[in-house]
Amino acid sequence: MSLLNSQSAPLIQVDNLSKSFGDHLALDKVSFSIEKGQPIALVGPNGAGKTTLFSLLCGYLLPSSGTITIAGLRAGDGNLFGRLAALPQDAQFDPRFSIAHQLTFYAQLQGLTRKNAQKEAHRTLELVGLADTLKAKPDELSHGMRKRVAIAQTLIGSPEIVMLDEATAGLDPINAREVRQLVASLSSEITFILSSHDLSELERLCSQVLYIEKGQLKQHQNLQSEEQQGFLTIRMRKAYDNFLPLMAGVADVQHIEQTQNNEFLITTGLVSPDSEPLDLQILKLCHQHKWQYSQLTNGKTLENRLF
Amino acid sequence: MLNIHRLSILTQFELKRIFNTKNGLIALMAFCAVWFILLTYVISSATELVFSDGFKLAASSLFGSLGLSALLKWPVAEFSIYWLVAVYSFPIFTFLVSSDQTCSDRARGTLRFITLRASRSEILIGRFLGQFLTLVSLILLTLLACVILATVRDNALFLPALKQAAVLFIELAIIILPFIALMSFFNSILSSAKMSIVAGILFYTIGALLIGFIQFQLDSGLFLNFIFPGTQISSVVSLDGLDFYHYLIPILQTIVLLFVADKLLKRASI
Questions:
Q1: Membrane-crossing residues (chain B) (predicted)?
Q2: Domain stops at, among A222, A254, A271
């Protein structure tokens, strides 16, 4: 059953998935489903099982128990070739061949003719801003550049699902931003699954979050859900002595708590339709007292939602 | 089901590894240098010696005692010596050259890029075919050099030499098949080329001792030797009175080894 003729079926369906390495249970009966659409974040502490889950979804590992269905097919099925792409953590290119040679080879495996495969290698490298490294060998590139080339290989052809494991780890801020922009610009065509420790990055890009801890799926949150309504997060540039009592005194503020240094989570009460919107009231208060804020966000930050 | 297009792309990429990379070309040059020395100083000199009037009788006696008297009747003398060198050296060479089919790609993570585009069976068979084509190209190169060597000595030997080269090409191509498959097998369970070579050496040494022990205990079990690629070499080296059975052994060994390697690679974590 293909994705095209199964619009109602989830893009990825995972049921009771477990994976053991000897006595170590890396994943413990994980179940979730992912629909086609906005990027999905995979979050969790080191050793939580994120990379194991990635590897299982890509078919690099076989599950100890449970099932994975991707676009109606089992993980690793030949019909997923070219439809599912991945940036596996720490995977390296063959040092003996040029980048162009290897990307062309991958594109040819996906069914492109040699000429089109060469064009595709050039196009994907252009997407990650590395078109001038076509003839370079992997060892001639920096770690960050190799990572971007690895991202380029995920974009060969027209994949439906792209899994990026720690895509921006090790990249400088400018390149990390470019990768984020690339993901955002392609997210209408491709369903991205991103794993990262940078929660603000995931918050900006993703609509859903899978939180894994000790091999178990602890939370599966929709960041755009209505649960987010009723909360505001404000981050101040510095600490102000009377900030908390004055803010708590705003009519529609039900509760305010400090979540981090200079970051506050505001819970709104029932807002009457006639009263001024709460965010405007807060901004006015800041303006009156000459408080400088750096960010005002609707809802909780991802960090506050998860921890 | 194997996809022919992907299989062909994988095989071509393997060929590029030797013919289109700096490391591959250096290895090729080393191979040519070794064979230049073998042809010039070993095969050419030994041919002159073995077929000289003074040594003919001793050679006949020596070859006869080894069951190789048929070789002395070959019209192109160079190929008799070439064959004796090639039939034993190419299996060892194959053993070394094909020791890294999938393991370094697996250790590096490159295989993770490839398995999203080709099945593990296609990778296994594509690489096996790539190694096979690489090795038969090298065999062909040495055979052509030997044809030139014989033709330089005597122009009239050109056609008989070509004919003999064709026969030996097929023989050598069949002999090396199970050695490549043996390395495909070790590559499917081990993580480095060095480990695959060590495993191969242990397979031939400890395996032979073990089978010898079993044969001694059971007073039978000669068939167990069929697990060793190259077991038929001693009986085919004379190339005299060969039947289909002699070709069946290496072909069956190849099929069985590839089948097992495929099963193991499919279950392997990459």
A1: 24-43, 80-98, 128-152, 164-185, 197-216, 244-261
A2: A222
